[in-house]
Write a structure and sequence with these properties.
Number of helices: 18
Oligomer: single chain
Structural class: alpha/beta
Amino acid sequence: MRKKEATILLIDDDDDILFSARISLKNYFTNIITENNPKNINQHLTKNLIDVILLDMNYCIGFEDGREGLYWLKHIKEISPETTVILMTAFGSIHLAVEAIKQGATDFILKPWNSEKLYAAVNSGVELARSKRKNTQLETIQKQQDKEFHQKTEHIIGNSTAMQTAINLVKKVAPTDANVLILGENGTGKYVFAKEIHLQSNRKDHPFIHIDLGSLNENLFESELFGYVKGAFTDAYKDTIGRFELAKGGTIFLDEIGNLPLHLQSKLLTVIQNRKITRLGEGKERAIDARIICATNAPIYQMVADETFRQDLLFRINTIELNLPPLRDRIEDITLLAYHFLQKLTLKYRKKIGSFTKEAINAMENYHWPGNIREIEHIVERAVIITDNNQIQTSDLYFSSKSININVSDNLNLEETEKVLIQQAIQKHQGNISKAAKDLGLTRAALYRRLEKYQL
């Protein structure tokens, strides 16, 4: 049998016991360390990553009450809490075993031991130690992510009436646990607003779990959101919690909910109504404690009318509805945003660019911004990279409309032709989707699907 990569420390003042335990375990584990003086524990824990310590309970002649073992147990758990400690003694008592377990021991072995039972106890101890280390690592990663999440929160920028209305609504709704539906085109800041609602809520010290339903495989919907138990399906090797449980005490942000198929909408509706989930392969219901925020760029009300989105689900998720304006409807915020991204990106690329020319600002204010805030950041970033001046010039700005006015007859590729026609229609109607769709002979929903397809 192949040895398991693990380090076991045996501590006993009887060399015969140490020899016997080492012989029993060396065929199963790669590294067996023996020690007859518990005062050297610190030295071993410093030099090695110890998985399991087999610790004798008594060391001084005449003392057989186990107090020494309990003392060293407490010491080990203080300096290496992830190490599994198994106590061993020739003088067993129920009271001593209970006290040892209370103070952090994993198991209690009586000498002389059965070799198979010894191996089983140590092997379980190794797995437990690794599980604890993994959990500690995940907790550390989560804490770091939470720290970065708070540090890197993008500012909500805008003095326009439309933005101030949205900001004021956030202030009112954030302290509550009301479900929120955020509507807006691609790039209008739906994720940023969802995060801001969480950060201004009483749940801010708990997880913020973001799920992009648009990119989630239908077959993974239930396992990802609700979790599963061992054996629920092929490759389900262990119990795994879903996103709703991960969001315990915090907020779950269901992005692109408009892309969720009808048969999955009913499952989500049941969870939201009952505030309970059931893991795949398990009959037990589990209560959830997470605030629900949803978002979509799809024409959700038209989808209800077209019966592609459940009306009862819409009623459940839009207790509060937050509509984010497109950038073309908040022209007075364009300069603010441009300078915000200029400051951020000059630091990133270590360039000294102090401002935009007046002509560059005018050009940005006259552009229709189909990609909204995401597009203005992209355009400013490109300008920062390519310019050789200390001011951003109009020539540094690359607007997608520059490549729109081409002769369709020059390109006979159907998809490219359709893309160009859609771009021209949106430009013609200054981003008004309803008018552009009517001009193209499409429904709003059909035009939105094409915009998504061509990433416009």
